[in-house]
UniProtKB/TrEMBL annotation:
This is NAD(P)H dehydrogenase (Quinone). Coiled coil: none annotated. It comes from Lentzea albida. It comes from the Bacteria. The lineage of its organism: Bacteria, Bacillati, Actinomycetota, Actinomycetes, Pseudonocardiales. InterPro entries: NAD(P)-bd_dom_sf, NmrA-like, NmrA-type_oxidoreductase. It holds the Pfam family NmrA. Residues 7-192 form the NmrA-like domain. Transmembrane segments: none annotated.
């Protein structure tokens, strides 16, 4: 097996066009630049179509067409654009990553408190490796064209459950302290986080409280042939 490496930024349509020539399949991993995502995704889809790529898979987000998450609109736009592109494709709607909680481990270890504005909302997260294995399975097996897969973990965890997972790992009780979004922003700003970032985190939490990430679907575990990774196992891996 031979491999060809090519470098192209999502914003560089010309470089993308050259990079995708001759490929049979493309995995479009959603951009991290919120507010610029759709334009970047459109560049990749257009380049794939122009290069004659037969198939493209795209990593979207849970319940993208109905979610209140601030991350959802650009995913909806991308899904719609991909559907109209004429490309054979699969949409992989990834839930939250367990790894998103790792940055909180030092503070929670010190305080014994998990603070969030997520209310009683639940999150059906999985490990990045789980989502990667699911995407690899879709790309290397047939029968996935024109399908939308909801990729989630095997269980939806409340923030009390998440606090308990932290407690299992650090060896002490951890409690969940739900707060209002405005109070979370104020606390984060006081801790040195810029106001824009703090406000964004609070809006994400609010969408979780509204059920944006609570869907549990067996598709990911079925495709990868094993249970999805637990939050405890991810926290213990660092």
């Amino acid at each position: 097996m031979t491999f060809r490496a090519a470098q192209a930024e999502y914003a560089d349509a010309h470089a993308l066009g050259k990079a995708l020539v001759g490929l049979d399949k493309v995995l479009l991993i959603s951009s991290s630049e919120v507010g610029r995502r759709f334009a970047q995704h459109r560049n990749v889809i257009d380049a794939a179509a122009s290069a004659g790529v037969p198939y493209l898979a795209y990593t979207s987000m849970t319940k993208a067409t109905e979610s209140s998450s601030p991350l959802a609109p650009e995913h909806r736009q991308t899904e719609d654009y991909l559907a109209a592109s004429g490309l054979a494709h699969t949409v992989l709607r990834n839930n939250w990553y367990h790894e998103n909680y790792l940055a909180q481990l030092p503070a929670i270890t010190e305080s014994g408190v998990l603070t969030a504005a997520a209310g009683e909302g639940k999150v059906a997260a999985a490990a990045r490796r789980d989502f990667a294995d699911g995407a690899a399975t879709v790309l290397t097996t047939g029968g996935h064209e024109r399908k939308v897969y909801e990729f989630t973990g095997d269980a939806a965890l409340s923030y009390a459950d998440i606090a308990n997972a932290f407690g299992q790992v650090i060896g002490r009780a951890v409690v969940y302290r739900p707060v209002a979004a405005a109070d979370l922003v104020a606390a984060m700003v006081q801790a040195g986080v810029d106001e824009g970032t703090a406000a964004f985190v609070a809006v994400i939490d609010t969408s979780i409280a509204e059920g944006a990430l609570d869907l549990v679907d067996p598709t990911l575990g079925t495709l990868i042939g094993r249970p999805t990774t637990s939050l405890v196992d991810v926290l213990r891996s660092v």
